[in-house]
Amino acid sequence: MLKSQVQALSSWAVSYPRLVLEVFIRKNFGERYFFMPTAIIVFLILVLIPLGSSWAEIAYTRNFPLGILWGKFTLWYAFAGAFLYFSILRNREIAKNPSVYDFKKFSLYQGDINPVFVKFRKTEGEPDWRKIETMYEPAPFLAAGIILWLIGQPLGILLFVCGIMYSGGYSLAYLQGDHFIMDKIDEILMNEELEEVFVDGKDPKDARGVRFQGKKPIGEDMRRKVAEMFTEEETVVAR
User: What is the mean pLDDT of the chain?
Assistant: First the structure.
């Protein structure tokens, strides 16, 4: 349960940095994946961050020097304005797209990936979606962030952090998917090897690593009855 909560919290935490970048490189989001009020909140946060970073100097001079903001954060505010503009475009796309209520659009669809990134393909010719989402998509923002950071632009720090969170967020999503599939495979192996491991005491190394941890009934007949109950319970749950 704790692991599940940590993963859920992590997914939520990276969703905002991912949104900062996704509106520029993806389109046609699902109506529950992209939420315009959330984009507005992110825009307001982007507007307020420079004020917070300049608070010490503003408090010291006891005035509001616009030069502090526009001189150092010109690119930052230009990026914030571009983010709001592209967010409005993404919101309009959702209004024009087929509705989930017509069973024509997955509501949590993460958007169309830019064809530029789809060109990166596996040896077999299929797009390597994992690398696209965890490496290729955040790479331009990471590169731009490093360059801007080196020349003293705060926007570079934002792009770099969002790029890292973007990659980390999708890496976490793929990791969760991997574990979901492995859970199903383990269930199959457990069902196939359960009787011989639980009833006959088969060695785990001869049972594809499957083992039962816990006390077992002494008699073989009783162990077999218990093993049959395991299968019955799983059948009831499946129905």
Answer: 81
